[in-house]
């Protein structure tokens, strides 16, 4: 086989890989994009988009069933599981199609469908033995589901985010292992669509929430809809003829065995690096087997290898993968001229109901870096005007600021419209705004964002900058 010679080889054609390809191609005409799995990106094929399609169906069912408090009677709400899944798959395939169109637009000579591993730091080899000599290489291989030992004996009844959206219809019952972001989104959606759901976790975490008060609030709220034990004791999980039997300690204190049609493993994802033979690169690897890299240039050590996206095990979010791809690809293309790329203010959103948002420094990071030097403002949405109007008055928001400077540091929220409030706060964090300057911004009435203003006012007072909150502040509008 004739060896391939290129300036830049990019391993992985997901969001990060395609971003890296475009950025590298702007610097050099000699770029090869290599993909060993199906094209389509994690987000489009089995991540962000199909999960939101399922959540949208669940929201429609939930609203129909809970219209009576508005004086609206909806009779006989039924869920057609096959129709729900058909739409999920139809729209998912449409999103995947958009990605495939982008891939097809890449010159044939610039892409290779093959699984590769490293022979050395500048040489890749395909399973068929073809050598690819590259002056620079970008690793963008994405991630794969992680299975705990207890679930590894399951086969036909085991679901992950990579096959759950291929179901022909909704399951009758589902045991979800892992109350993280994906687990909680899918558990609530399935429950609202009529599936009997129980969620089992380890360690007490719920959807990545750091603040204990917000986490406890969310735990209680979710348990009003479906069974959630974030610190569960599970003795065994066994596949049977008609489902999966889970033996666990119920929250009421009794051991019991319950049968579910399927088990969903939502226990996280890990960088897909095992088959790359990274030991042949000479790179320093961390305790997770990921190359040590610079977060601002994405360079691995002092090598000509770069890493981007979920493979880096940094921040597994699409917008972060896109940014990392651009940085890594641009630096690989112009190497050795390395340039620090823009790393945006941290922003994460969970599309449960209520939604969850995290912005900037979380409470764990604040305790590490700003201990004794920050204050928090808080608001409950239970009495917030617009939230009560829409019967979305559940949740709380905490905002954090630095003593002395008044600088806004971050926030965490479980409540209505968190996806939108999270964006406002992320913009403020990236602009390094003070809490006072944020309060100078306009707030319309009546909107959910008025709750944010209340939290900021509380924070400003605790920073010894502004006055104490006025109970039932009428110049803010009733219910603000």
Structure description:
The protein is α/β, with parallel strands linked by helices and 480 residues long. The chain has 3 domains: 4-144 and 270-334, FAD/NAD(P)-binding domain (3-Layer(bba) Sandwich), CATH 3.50.50; 149-268, FAD/NAD(P)-binding domain (3-Layer(bba) Sandwich); 347-476, 2-Layer Sandwich (Enolase-like, domain 1), CATH 3.30.390. It has helices at residues 15-25, 42-46, 48-65, 81-104, 181-192, 212-223, 318-334, 363-369, 385-389, 418-430, 435-439, 449-462, and strands at 4-11, 31-35, 111-113, 116-120, 123-126, 131-139, 143-145, 158-159, 173-177, 196-200, 227-229, 234-240, 243-249, 255-260, 262-265, 269-271, 305-307, 347-350, 355-360, 374-380, 396-402, 408-415. Strands 1, 2, 3, 4, 5, 6 and 17 form a 7-stranded mixed β-sheet that branches. The relative contact order is 0.12. The model has no long low-confidence stretch (mean pLDDT 95).
Number of helical segments?
12
Distance between the termini: 71 Å
Largest sheet: 7 strands, mixed
CATH fold field value of the largest domain? FAD/NAD(P)-binding domain
CATH architecture of the largest domain: 3-Layer(bba) Sandwich
CATH H level, superfamily name of the largest domain = FAD/NAD(P)-binding domain
Rg computed from alpha carbons, rounded to a whole number of angstroms: 24 Å
Number of domains: 3
Q: Kindly state the mean pLDDT as a whole number?
A: 95
Number of E strands: 22
User: Low-confidence runs (pLDDT<50, min 5 residues)?
Assistant: none
CATH class of the largest domain, please? Answer: Alpha Beta
